[in-house]
What does this fold into?
Amino acid sequence: MVDTNNPERQFIVTKNKGETKIEQVGENTNFKEDSVLKSAFGLNLYKELLPEKIIIVEGSGDRYFLNHCLALYNFRNFAIKSAGGASKIPTFAGLLSNEHLQSYVILDSDKEGKDIKKKIIETYKQFYSDKNLMTLKEILNTLPDNSTIEDLYPIEFIKNNLKIELGEDLEIDDKSAVIIQLKNLDEKLKNDKQKLESLKTKLSNAFTKEFHNLEKLKSCERLSGFLDNLILKL
It folds into this structure.
């Protein structure tokens, strides 16, 4: 049996290429990490171990970015979970609904995000509504249509880092979705999903390094407005 009141009594046993590894759960074990929970306790015990609020986002880059921002805001009683892609969010949302876990879902504001939101509300209408299932633009209505996390970055930051990564100056603005603009301006990014995802990861890493304290973060007008609105909804 699993003693959820004394997690330090548990051991995580994993096997990789014939090698068995045994690790005791200790005070430094991060129970907010999906892999730790799955390995140590199983999915059905999430509600015993997770913080009060669970935020579901589309990808790991979204999770990394929002974790960084909300930590600087000292908003910590939450866990952000990546669904591993927009198409997987309905399954993830359904699982949390079945477990009666308080969760919030944040989606991109593109057609896929809107369709997924509609699907989840129709399927799990007793658990999800506009109050806990939101697109980015519904959190901050000044964002452009089809907005993604990248539209929360300052436009000059994006331009500077695009020049570093792509070696060219791209004429982009904050009036329309950044990712759509990039696809229209660069055929390689349009046709190579892996290259685009790599660029998005590099932008996220560069942002967390440059905007590493609350003062710098709040200098990003669009982002700080988004975070203020998000926290009010949680």
In short: The CA atoms of residues 107 and 113 lie 5 Å apart. The chain has three domains: 1-41, 42-143+218-233, 149-209. Residues 193-210 form the longest helix (18 residues). DSSP finds twelve helices and six strands in the chain.
